């Protein structure tokens, strides 16, 4: 049997869509990435600064979600998951925006809980590649939060979320007490579990791994990260774009990201990074295809309306609305 699934992550710095094909095999379901799209939509600037998301940002988000919905139908996606990160979760108009997305794009988006994020991170990377009887830390750094997941002897042992993120830091809305709480937590993990490596996820650490030119196992040392951080912070945002071929929305957040990862590693007593270049959307897809139905049922949705209904609509004024906004 062959079918397609999709995962959507509405983050604080970007919105991502992953569409994967799934087929049965003698060893179980096998997935293959078919479409991976990242749209740089920085909702965190609005949400963290003003406590709400502006009308202009909402309009762009709706356009993005409608486009994702059309693409999912074109790709004949059967089921999907869609989650909202900290920027949308914390916005005072969050419920209104989620309702508009449902009405205009036909997609159901849910706030991402700590436990769900922990599970998706766990699912995103094959634990059989890790040393048995050792402890690891998953660290997912986003624009608004840092999720830290403790893996003890191959099992999920604990998960914490802290309001420490690159966009939140850029707009000056990170609380010193929150950063200290994260450091204190990591210090306790260091004393009680002595993790041997940090498994980093998120767009910034993926880019860092490419810039460091990691080995085939996507591993590098804390020292390598510190050296790269020194190079990056010595030049302007525009210089980073030119010298390191970074997109504008990556060039301004990569230095704060390096600083946070360095601090996390030091507090946890870790000197090795593993970067599988996978993330939340990969974990969502894996959850949909490998986990028992009862685990996915509360978050997994079917695509509605089907593709033929979508393109047999008598009219779609959304593009006219878009054109009017540009004039």
Report on this model:
The protein has 16 helices and twelve strands. With 327 residues, the protein is α/β, with parallel strands linked by helices. It has two domains: 129 residues, ATPase, nucleotide binding domain (Nucleotidyltransferase, domain 5, 2-Layer Sandwich); 149 residues, 2-Layer Sandwich (Nucleotidyltransferase, domain 5), CATH 3.30.420.150. Strands 1, 2, 3, 4, 5 and 12 form a six-stranded mixed beta sheet that branches. It starts with a strand and ends with a helix.
The CATH superfamily of the largest domain is identified as: Exopolyphosphatase. Domain 2
Distance separating the two termini: 48 Å
| CATH architectural name of the largest domain | 2-Layer Sandwich
Unreliable runs? 306-319
Based on CA inertia axes, which overall geometry fits? globular
Order of helices and strands: EEEHHEHHEHEEEHHEHEHHHHEHHEHH
Instruction: Kindly provide the name of the CATH class of the largest domain.
Output: Alpha Beta
Averaged pLDDT, please?
Answer: 88
Counting helices, strands and paired strands, the structural category is alpha/beta
Q: How many individual helices? A: 16
Q: How helix-rich are the residues, as a percent range? A: 40-55%
Total number of domains: 2
CATH topology call of the largest domain: Nucleotidyltransferase, domain 5
The fraction of residues assigned to DSSP E strands is 15-25%
Give the tally of β-strands.
12
């Amino acid at each position: 049997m062959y079918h397609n699934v999709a995962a959507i992550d509405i983050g604080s710095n970007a919105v991502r869509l992953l569409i994967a094909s799934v087929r049965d095999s003698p060893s179980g379901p096998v997935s293959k990435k078919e479409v991976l799209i990242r749209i740089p939509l920085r909702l965190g600037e609005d949400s963290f600064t003003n406590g709400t998301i502006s009308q202009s940002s909402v309009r762009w988000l709706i356009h993005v979600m409608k486009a994702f919905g059309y693409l999912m139908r074109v790709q004949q996606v059967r089921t999907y998951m869609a989650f909202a990160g900290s920027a949308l979760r914390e916005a005072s108009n969050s419920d209104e925006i989620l309702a508009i997305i449902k009405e205009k794009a036909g997609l159901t988006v849910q706030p991402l809980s700590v436990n769900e994020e922990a599970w998706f991170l766990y699912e995103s990377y094959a634990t059989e590649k890790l040393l048995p009887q050792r402890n690891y830390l998953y660290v997912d750094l986003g624009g608004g939060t840092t999720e830290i997941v403790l893996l003890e002897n191959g099992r999920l042992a604990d998960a914490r979320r802290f309001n420490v993120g690159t966009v939140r830091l850029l707009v000056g809305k990170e609380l010193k007490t929150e950063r200290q709480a994260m450091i204190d937590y990591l210090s306790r993990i260091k004393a009680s579990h002595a993790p041997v490596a940090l498994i980093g996820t998120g767009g910034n650490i993926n880019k860092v791994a490419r810039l460091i030119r990691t080995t085939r196992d996507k591993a590098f040392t804390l020292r390598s990260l510190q050296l790269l951080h020194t190079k990056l912070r010595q030049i302007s945002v525009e210089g980073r774009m030119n010298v390191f071929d970074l997109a504008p929305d990556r060039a301004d957040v990569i230095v704060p990201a390096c600083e946070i990862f360095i601090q996390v590693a030091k507090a946890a007593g870790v000197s090795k990074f593993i970067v599988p270049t996978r993330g939340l959307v990969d974990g969502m897809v894996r959850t949909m295809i490998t986990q028992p139905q009862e685990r996915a049922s509360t978050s997994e949705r079917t695509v509605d309306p089907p593709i033929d209904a979508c393109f047999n609509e008598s009219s779609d004024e959304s593009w006219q609305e878009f054109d009017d906004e540009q004039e």
